[in-house]
Every structure is written in C-alpha cells, then in structure tokens.
Amino acid sequence: MTxxxxxxxxxxxxxxxxxxxxxxxxxxxxxxxVALLAGNLLILISIRCSPLFHQSxxxxxxxxxxxxxxxxxxxxxxxxGDLLVERKIISYDNCMLQVFxxxxxxxxxxxxxxxxxxxxxxxxxxPLHYVVIMNRTxxxxxxxxxxxxxxxxxxxxxxxxxxxxxxxxxxIDHYFCDIFPLLKVACTDTYITGVPVIALSGMVILVTFIxxxxxxxxxxQSSLYLLVSYHCGHLYFGPVxxxxxxxxxxxxxxxxxxLFYTIIAPLFSSLIYTQxxxxxxxAMRKVWCxxxxxxEACN
Length: 299
Known about the structure:
Elements: E1 9-12, H1 19-48, H2 56-73, H3 76-82, E2 89-91, H4 92-125, H5 130-133, H6 136-162, E3 171-172, H7 179-185, H8 191-218, H9 224-244, H10 254-275, H11 278-288, H12 290-298
Parallel strand pairs: 1-3
Antiparallel strand pairs: 1-2
Helix pairs in contact: 1-2, 1-3, 1-10, 1-11, 2-4, 2-10, 4-6, 4-8, 4-9, 6-8, 8-9, 9-10, 11-12
Transmembrane segments: 20-45, 57-76, 96-118, 139-158, 191-212, 224-244, 256-274
InterPro entries: GPCR_Rhodpsn, GPCR_Rhodpsn_7TM, Olfact_rcpt, Olfactory_Receptors
Keywords: Cell membrane, Disulfide bond, G-protein coupled receptor, Membrane, Olfaction, Receptor, Sensory transduction, Transducer, Transmembrane, Transmembrane helix
C-alpha cells in the first residue's frame, strides 16, 4: 500500500473558514457531546442496575446506547478539537481507522435498531409466544449478528479506502474521513470503484429501512418503544440515505447532513428514550435517588 501513495496525512477543510462560526460550533458541539455521553451513560447504568435489564427491549437499549457512544466518539472529539485550530490534520492511518470505525459502529447501530423493531413486533403481535421468541439466548444471538453485520458492512468499504492511490492533493472537503471524500482526492478514476460502495451501503440502508417500516406497519397497537425506534431510525436514515443512495459524488450539503447522523440523531435518541419512557424514568429515580423513590413508593 505504501507504493501507491506519497502522502502521510490529509488536511480536513472542516465545516467553515469563519473563525466566529467555528467558535460557535465548538461550544454547541461540545455541549452536545457531553450531553450525549451523560445521557447514554445514564441509560447504561440505570438499566444495568435495575430489573429492566432482564427485559429484552431494555437489553437492546443498553447496546444501542453503548454503540451511540462509540459511534459518535469516532468523529466528534476530533471535530471539536479541530474547531480550535487553523490547520486541521489527520494522519493517513487515523483516516483509514476513522473510515472503518464509522461504518463498523454505524452498521451495528442500524442492525440493532432492526432487532429492537423486531422485538416490539413480537411483543405486540405475538404476545403469547413473546417470552419464547425473545429469550435471552436469542437476544444475544441478535446482538452478535448485529456486530457481525457491522463488520461485514465495514470491511469492504475499508478495503476500498485503503486500496486507493493518493498522490496529491491531500485536502478533504469534510470534517472527517469518509469513503466519498476520499474517492474525490484519489489519483485514479474512482467512478467504477464508487459503484460497489453505493451498492453495498444502499442495500444495507434500504433493507433495514424496509424491515423497520414493515415492523411498524404490522403493529396494530400503540407502542412507545417502537414509535421511538421508528422515528429515531428516520432521523438517522434520512441523512444517510441522502449521502449514500446517489452516484459517487460529493456535495457541499454533505457536511450538514453528516452532522445529523454523527451527532444530532444519537443525542436525540438518548433524550427520547429517557424522557418519553415512564419505566426508564422510574428506574433512574430508583437507581440515582433511592430515598426519594422509597418515599414515593410509600405514598
């Protein structure tokens, strides 16, 4: 691979050249990242230390919170740090690592969202068989399958990125390394290379979106958990579909849409899961404010 490139780093052009805008974005994204970490850690600890851990839907929620932390952390800390410096540099190795981890954790999140939708479908449409269908062994297998699916999704994209020849220029018009911006700066005809990328990413997005929609459509009763999964999925899939379900080109809007699925969607998912779920709020009070919870229970 070394013979195919003569660069050791890339220059990220970031979100904006305006210093005042960069400072504003630094404050906003720092607050969002801290809130995301706090919210998801709160969910993780609250569920793990309460009886909710033995329910399959909260078991999946633990994993989605963990993946949200990992997924966002592949991009956001670097973005926040770069907003304070004039020259935004990322090494070749870290760039390739970022491509892999982004698609790896992103793929896992997509597949766990699908498992969550299936869990709610089974609970609502097959209530008599739900305990048998969604036993802990099957939940573990679904989570394992999600991790395997994330790896299967990420490795071809990583192999495509690491196989690209780079001979200059090395400026990436984005705030993180992704496959399409890298295709743009590679010193070869990348149109044919980009077609398999679209096919793979598009297939994952479309199939998962269809499964989520079918699960939602077959549900005949109201389920907050499924509704949240469905709408969080839309918040996540919309911007992803805009970027990956089109010819292998880059657009100025890509950076704005990328903010939705790298920062905004993971942040809002944790807020929605905690604030619109009475069982979660009850579990958090029991774990974090046991004395207050005891008084409420007595009353």
